[in-house]
Write a structure and sequence with these properties.
Blueprint: E1 3-9, E2 12-18, H1 21-38, E3 44-45, E4 50-51, E5 57-65, E6 68-75, E7 80-84, E8 90-91, H2 100-111
Antiparallel strand pairs: 1-2, 1-5, 3-4, 5-6, 6-7, 7-8
Helix pairs in contact: 1-2
Length: about 120
Amino acid sequence: MSWRVTVRIGPEVEKLRAETAEEALDAVELNARAASNTERRETVDMRVRRYEAGDQVAGRVELNGPGVAAGVDVRGDGGIQAWTGRWRRRPLELEDGETPFEALRRVVQSTSVEP
């Protein structure tokens, strides 16, 4: 079974493939960490609303596989938020001391249909 990882950083889009969920999760973490170290946004002040750097998505790394649609958003302040959902993204709740990447691994591995 093939897993797809789509990396969106600014206007750039890169599509990757992985044979296993573990390889795909490694690719998600590697690309999101790289983006969080380089992508920063400034606060955008509109007349009616202010968008703080942490509210903006500077990059997104999506993971699609058998029965799984999930990923991480890299925020404008360098923060990372894991989520699930194909059409509507639901943020993952972090458990005791868990990183967003560990939460993503926990959820993906619990729903994966790989042997």
